[in-house]
Amino acid sequence: MRGLLLLCGVVLIQLLAVQTDAQRSKSKWQTLTGFSPRVIARGGFSGLFPDSSIDAYNFAMLTSVEDVVLWCDLQLTKDGAGICFPGLTMSNASNIEAAYPNRTNTYLVNGVSTQGWFTIDFSLKDLNKVNLIRGILSRSERFDGNGYSILTVQDVNTELKPQGLWLNVQHEAFYAQHNLSMTTFLTTTSKTIIIDFISSPEVNFFKKIAGRFGRILVPKSYVLPLDDKQYLLPSTSLVQDAHKAGLEVFVSGFANDVDIAHDYSYDPVSEYLSFVDNGNFSVDGVLSDFPISASASVECFSHMGRNATKQVDFLVISKNGASGDYPGCTDLAYAKAIKDGADVIDCSVQMSSDGTPFCSSSIDLGNTTMVAQTPLRNRSTNVPELSSLGGIYTFSLTWPEIQTLTPAISNPYRTYNMFRNPNERNAGKLVSLTEFLNLAKNSTSLSGVLISVENAAYLRENQGIDVVKAVLDTLTQTGYTNITTKKVMIQSTNSSVLLDFKKQSRYETVYKVEETIRDILDSAIEDIKAFASAVVIVKSSVFPDSEGFVTEQTNVVERLQKSQLPVYVELFQNEFVSQPYDFFSDANVEINSYVTGAGVNGTVTEFPYTAARFRRNRCLGSKETPPYMAPVQPGGLLQVVNHASLPPAEAPNPVFTDADVTEPPLPPVTAKAPTSTPGTPSEPSTNAPAPSGQTRLTLSLLLSVFPMAIASLLLL
To answer: Where is the signal peptide (predicted)?
Structure first.
């Protein structure tokens, strides 16, 4: 970060041997000393607050391991004061341009003419008018108005009293050219302040202050390199070679909100573990913008096998299988969900024209397959009851035709240039409901299946297809009787569908409330209990957010649970852009806050491995919960934001009432009129059933935002 990744290898020393090893675990670690790896907070908690600000440093100490090391990028002012600031020039991470618009200068830096606001042109008094702001534009600007002062090294030591302090000297030669001595500053400062580590890319600088090197600091890629597609290559021998030579290895470049290898499925803990607990070696420390994740990885998730005891109990329910890693609802997505530890795998049932139920996340095949690039694209029709745009619907193709289609992985955050597992973007095959149920039945680890049924009224009235009957018949044919060792859960957003299932079977029924709500009436809960045994709600109905910040916690979960209705929450995704800032760009922090904070009974996730692993982390079994495993305080971050920088108040979410639950019963199956040759667009229906009170915003509406021709290109 800011040049650190470009270092060819930074040598570092420890000035004073003030060790805190006694506070750290020593057992299975493959570090040089045998102690757990150190966590170094780069500029404090710089992934959230402005780099090197008082809140960044404070928050790092509050949320990290006890012996977290605070990293300070040391710069010198005109009058020789040592300040903590992430760059030699100051425009990128401060408001100096506004404070001193006419004080730019041009100097040679490493032989390159560079213009900017240099620290050497300002005295410490001058910098009293300058405040720290975010240095990476993708991070929140809400803390820029907090008026954070630039801190001196003495400030950090006096105000924070860190257990470890690391000074990074990036440009000693530049300062020497301008008659400012880093050596003199460090020598003088070390008489009153304990400086645990010093690093620099300039070897000559170290020759001035020490005669030997005991550690090396390298970018992540020097240990675990990546290919040009962002997949991991075999690890280098750097760590083992360094350890043989008696050198510790610290690794830089960890941040939760940057691209990481596809192998990690956007899970920062998986990345940390590959460096500290891979079975072959462990680096001796990690430099991170998000020290809470580094701390949890080291102390909670390391040395933990797949069969480790669960420390907390909640259901891990897949969403279209492990659809974060493979195309959803394919054999590969379901197989990985089972392997990754899901308790329940799900099938969103769709119907083919010949009456075969199969699994697909959308009734529009253009959203889930490459159908738009096949001759079957001429089956596109307009169905206003399902979408305002045309689509190639499942009921327009036979099951044999659908089986010929190539599935496509979902990329919900392509606008952020974030793509899921591109090497497997078209892997696997779609499965019928029969195949899905047989797969689940043969699994020894699954506790059940969840079958989602939508658009039942439309299919009965307009396509002559009874999806409820098709599901029940398939369950019977595959041996899923009413009482079975595998739990069967039937989910729908329609009360009429669940009532129909309840009349004909004894399977568990799950009601999905797909709109964001702030509360739910007692009368609505009583109505739900008449046809459902559990409820699925969206994440924002638990922790509503505004412009990326959690505002509060509702009582929806508590009210439903008091009525003996388990609550499952969706949708959990690993991509950091799917989470409010309060969860620190870490899916594990988010899961923790919903499970141990809000007490939900289950998570519906596209990345089952992350949720299943979370249950086993040993910190959940501790007598005292460590700070890096504490759930977030809803609305807590907003309390730190300057009032003038707060996001505008939004209209409150609605209260869910009994009127939102009540629906007319499902219509009878209407015989489908003879159709013309395949590919002839059908006339839109004029007798669509009246919608229920709940908003029916289908996945098709969310994804079909472009004409089919463009959509097909985006799937490539």
So the answer is: 1-22
Residue with tokens 């095959």: 429
> What is the distance between the terminal CA atoms of the chain, rounded to a whole angstrom?
31
Give φ, ψ of 542 to 5 degrees.
Answer: -105, -55
Work out the number of other CB atoms within 10 angstroms of the CB of residue 620: 17
Q: Supply the angle between the helices 495-504 and 456-463 in degrees, to the nearest 10.
A: 80
Sign of CA dihedral 627, 631, 634, 637: positive
pLDDT, tens only, 329-374: 999 999 999 999 999 999 999 999 999 999 999 999 999 999 999 9
pLDDT tens string 399-424: 999 999 999 999 999 999 999 999 99
For residue 571, whether the previous peptide bond is cis, meaning omega lies within 30 degrees of 0, is: yes
Task: Name, in order, each residue with C-beta under 8 angstroms of 113's C-beta and a sequence gap of 6 or more.
Answer: 106, 107
Domains of the chain, first to last: 38-87+136-301 (3.20.20.190), 312-512 (3.20.20.190), 528-660 (no CATH)
Residue corresponding to tokens 């739900």:
528
CA distance 554 to 544: 8
218 beta partners: 251
Q: Tell me: the pLDDT tens digits for 240-254?
A: 999 999 999 999 999
pTM greater than the 0.85 cutoff? yes
**Could you give the CA distance from residue 594 to residue 119 in angstroms, rounded to a whole number?**
44
| Half-sphere exposure of residue 693: CA atoms within 13 angstroms, side-chain side | 13
Whether the CB-CB separation of 631 and 597 falls below 8 Å is answered with yes
Sole residue written with tokens 């009482």: 483
Pairing of strands 519-520, 655-656: parallel
